[in-house]
Amino acid sequence: DAMVIQNPRYQVTQFGKPVTLSCSQTLNHNVMYWYQQKSSQAPKLLFHYYDKDFNNEADTPDNFQSRRPNTSFCFLDIRSPGLGDAAMYLCATRGTDSYNEQFFGPGTRLTVL
Amino acid sequence: GEDVEQSLFLSVREGDSSVINCTYTDSSSTYLYWYKQEPGAGLQLLTYIFSNMDMKQDQRLTVLLNKKDKHLSLRIADTQTGDSAIYFCAESFTGKLIFGQGTTLQVKP
After folding, report:
1. Is A40 left (phi over 0), alpha (psi -120 to 50) or beta?
2. Which of B31, B40, B41 sits opposite A100 (nearest CB)?
3. Shortest CA distance to A23 belongs to which of A70, A67, A75?
4. Of B81, B69, B65, which is closest to residue B15 (Cα–Cα)?
5. B34 — phi, psi (to 5°)?
6. With contact defined as beta carbons under 8 Å apart, do A11 and A20 qualify?
7. With 0-12 CB in 10 A as exposed, 13-18 as middle and 19+ as buried, what is B3?
8. Are A100 and B4 within 8 A, CB to CB?
9. What are A1-24's pLDDT values in tens digits?
């Protein structure tokens, strides 16, 4: 089945230790998104790629970076995680269908010790 | 800026109807969406409605859109315990989704 896969599902890191979260998709969608979702809050868009074009949200901290080496993969790098970065990180993709549906992965739960 | 608001919690009995409400601010949104999130999982699109429609029905789900009042609702008929989840309303703005805070639906047996 075509899908959005996120690895790992659970990630524990130490304060200040860089961490990379991974997303891959078999949908061949040209748009990929990274969202941060804190407990009991709405998902908040961090950035997205339209093909190779990177689009950062204005309020995304510099601590968050992203890479998209090819259509299928997208990475979220947190350079120096703080306690406030503990959250669920959701990857989503979108194709060019008529109603702009975004397909979400299961998320990676990040814990910062 | 764009803003989407929902009530935070709804509790119903199994078999009853559930109605989850949402208000949004961007009148230029082309599509409005309802996503479902089960514990520890990602978001799953339940249904969507095009902005020139007033109502959309899909099996147990009915979406009502009042564009004048910028009000969207999701009705779930014959609510089951498997419907217990967080429901997010979202509007589409320049290709991005703006989500509400989510409504936790609790279904009591």
Report:
1. left
2. B31
3. A75
4. B81
5. -120, 125
6. no
7. exposed
8. no
9. 669 999 999 999 999 999 999 999
